[in-house]
């Protein structure tokens, strides 16, 4: 019995409701179903259930889907995923659950981890799971979401929010970002990156959903900062100054900083720290280098500086992170550094209160340690609150 329990996979239950979007319904299966350990064993079991007994469920397309599990399956969930639906009825209009949906959710065990994709967050909110918590949803519904549920701290600028046992994503494809983040949180960067490669998506996207919001006046076509990011990624172990990054694009520091925020959703200094944290994570997972050497190679200068940044971004020390996610047989060679374009993998959350004018010197993370980082928002993909 003990051996059987040890081999039991984490069960993801996806709730299919009438009016569902087939694309979003398929995201959990595609992400969690692809996650494997070093021996190739599946790390999750993904099942789908309805709020009614087994049978057809309407979609927003020209076909129905046949769901073979009823609401009692929710009692077996380690993690519940609620995708969006275009037929939420009183949940969307009045902020209350239908009797059918309330009865289904009553099957959940205490401690079940909860995830929502897009407007699936309305279901969690109507059930009271988001009271007093930070949350997000599709940017087009964020204002309505806040008005309907005033106790929720709605952030319309991010791709997703991780609030420990309750996680919410922005619209549609942000569900991919959220599910990859959960795999990364559960099993480390290497597993999440492998899933991302298999489904041909970037492991992490720059910025938040603010960059996708349609503005009344479109901005004129402008040069981007990709060359500066690529230049910096080749020099993470060196001191890097803001003026040197700006020089790669032949821009003034002020113009470069503004363009960088518009494209990446964070300041150059925050982005650079994110890249150094990510490179340190990869080296901790896949190399035999000492913590001191990794701190040097990632550009933190000292092990103490790296420890502070990893603690702020990930909530753990380098030693604990390595013990948790270290491959059983680390390769002799170092992993390749992340690429700047397509978007690099950004595991760290930017500071909650970034400076209005970034310092010219970006090379000393110990001097620019992220301040006031939300303890419950490691939030991969959280956008800079100060970004314009």
The Cα radius of gyration reads 22 Å
Give the DSSP E fraction (strand runs of 2 or more residues).
5-15%
Oligomeric composition of the shown chains: single chain
The number of E-state strands comes to 10
* Count of individual domains: 2
- Helix-strand topology string: HEHEEEEHHEHEHEEEHHHHHHHHH
- Unreliable spans are 1-6, 214-221, 328-333, 339-361, 363-388
Describe the structure.
The chain is α/β, with parallel strands linked by helices and 388 residues long. The protein folds into 2 domains: 8-198, 3-Layer(aba) Sandwich (Rossmann fold), CATH 3.40.50; 222-388, Arc Repressor Mutant, subunit A. The protein is 36% helix and 11% strand. It contains 15 helices and 10 strands. Helix 10 crosses helix 11 (253-264). It is globular, with a radius of gyration of 22 Å. The model is unreliable at 1-6, 214-221, 328-333, 339-361 and 363-388 (pLDDT under 50).
Question: Keywords for this structure?
Answer:
6-stranded mixed beta sheet, 36% helix, alpha/beta, disordered N terminus, 388 residues, Arc Repressor Mutant, subunit A, 15 helices
Give a brief description.
The protein has 388 residues and is of the alpha/beta class. It has helices at residues 2-7, 22-32, 90-93, 99-105, 121-126, 142-148, 174-187, 189-198, 226-233, 242-248, 253-264, 268-286, 291-297, 303-314, 318-325, and strands at 10-16, 44-50, 55-58, 64-67, 79-82, 113-116, 134-135, 153-154, 160-163, 166-169. Mean pLDDT is 82; it is low at 1-6, 214-221, 328-333, 339-361 and 363-388.
């Amino acid at each position: 019995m003990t051996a059987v329990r040890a081999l039991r996979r984490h069960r993801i239950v996806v709730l299919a409701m009438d009016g569902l979007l087939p694309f979003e319904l398929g995201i959990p299966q595609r992400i969690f179903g692809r996650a494997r350990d070093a021996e190739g064993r599946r790390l999750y079991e993904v099942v789908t259930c309805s709020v009614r007994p087994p049978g057809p469920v309407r979609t927003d397309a020209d076909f129905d889907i046949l769901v073979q599990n009823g609401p009692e399956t929710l009692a077996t969930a380690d993690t519940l995923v609620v995708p969006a639906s275009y037929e939420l009825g009183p949940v969307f209009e009045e902020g209350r659950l239908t009797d059918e949906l309330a009865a289904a959710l009553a099957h959940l065990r205490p401690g079940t981890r909860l995830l929502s994709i897009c407007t699936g967050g309305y279901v969690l909110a109507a059930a009271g799971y988001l009271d007093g918590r930070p949350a997000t949803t599709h940017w087009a519904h964020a204002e309505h979401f806040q008005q309907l549920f005033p106790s929720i701290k709605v952030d319309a600028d991010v791709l997703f929010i991780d609030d420990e046992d309750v996680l919410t994503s922005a619209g549609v494809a942000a569900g991919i970002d959220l599910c990859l983040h959960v795999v990364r949180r559960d099993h480390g960067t290497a597993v999440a990156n492998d899933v991302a490669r298999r489904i041909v998506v970037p492991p992490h996207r720059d910025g938040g959903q603010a960059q996708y919001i349609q503005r009344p006046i479109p901005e004129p076509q402008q040069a981007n900062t990709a060359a500066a990011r690529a230049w910096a990624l080749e020099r993470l172990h060196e001191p890097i100054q803001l003026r040197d990054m700006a020089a790669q694009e032949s821009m003034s520091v002020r113009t470069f900083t503004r363009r960088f925020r518009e494209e990446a959703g964070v300041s150059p200094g925050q982005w650079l720290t994110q890249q150094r944290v990510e490179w340190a994570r990869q080296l901790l997972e896949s190399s035999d280098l000492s913590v001191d050497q990794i701190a040097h190679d990632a550009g933190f200068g000292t092990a103490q500086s790296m420890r502070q940044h990893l603690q702020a971004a990930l909530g753990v020390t380098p030693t604990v992170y390595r013990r948790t996610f270290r491959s059983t047989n680390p390769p002799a060679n170092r992993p390749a550094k992340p690429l700047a374009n397509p978007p690099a993998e950004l595991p760290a959350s930017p500071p909650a209160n970034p400076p209005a004018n970034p310092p010219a010197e970006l090379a000393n993370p110990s001097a620019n340690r992220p301040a006031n980082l939300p303890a419950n928002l490691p939030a991969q993909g959280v956008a800079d609150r100060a970004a314009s």
